[in-house]
Amino acid sequence: MDNFSVTVAVPCYNGEKFISENISSILSQARIPDEILVIDDGCTDRTPEIVKGFREVKLIQHMSNKGLAASRNTALRNASGDVLVYLDADTRAHSKLLETLLQGYYADEIAGVGGRGIEATASSTEEGVNDIYNLWRYLHASQGFGDLSIKGVNMLWGLCSSYRKKVLEQVGGFDPIYKTNGEDVDIGIKINKLGLKLVYLPEAIVYHNRNDNFDSLKEMITRWYFWGYTAKKRNNDPAFLHYLRIILFNFIKNIIFDLIIKRNPGLAFISLKASGIELKATFKALLSKEQPWL
């Protein structure tokens, strides 16, 4: 039952290509949000000008780029809703996204509900994916936990996540050390330590507008693994061997899929390179200044 007031918050840094479509999708929701915030994290493009064209949206501006976690905290401080929904600026929300997310709050122990991102470059199929790097991301690096609902996940994907505002305040908000990635892993660990639950609903969908080349894909993978493992380490979570198992398992699974199912050596080569990037990023996080937890 929808007994909540809802704030939708969009952290944004130089998102002029996507922000209009993003806001329009929020305004087109079957369940209209009670409040929409866009956090301009020191944009140097036309993002503020575009946002100001939407009278339904409150624009909050940082004078300099503070990073993703800091932007999420700015939204938290300014939100009036009981539930705070975070969407990435380069996403387009399915028309029933908010309605679906709110259905997940069916018990007091549920602190957050999240969904998944579907790569817009591929729609819902592989047809139309002209670039092998976008195809690889669509096949092997989409942000979601599959097609089944799960009560009790470790984290919610940052591009499509929601939390009870009071729970975020209880854990002290997001750690501003996470400038680009890892804040979703970190907040998930903290919420789970309270004995509360995070729920994943695959029907809660956003469409992710991203185009990659090798360099941007490498940067994305590096950030995911470096900051993901850093979040585990900072929370005293013995995750190193777990990360190695994930990397090895994904490498074997992806290579088999690429070569046997897709018969695409180009995809297999990217999978090989990606595994090396994942290993390097994880070891870099392990050997960083803080005490490693094995």
UniProtKB/TrEMBL annotation:
Record-annotated Glycosyltransferase 2-like domain positions: 7-171
Record GO terms (molecular function): glycosyltransferase activity
Keyword list, A-Z: Glycosyltransferase, Transferase
Pfam family, one: Glycos_transf_2
Family indicated by similarity: Belongs to the glycosyltransferase 2 family.
Cited PANTHER family: POLY-BETA-1,6-N-ACETYL-D-GLUCOSAMINE SYNTHASE
The name this protein goes by in its record: Glycosyltransferase 2-like domain-containing protein
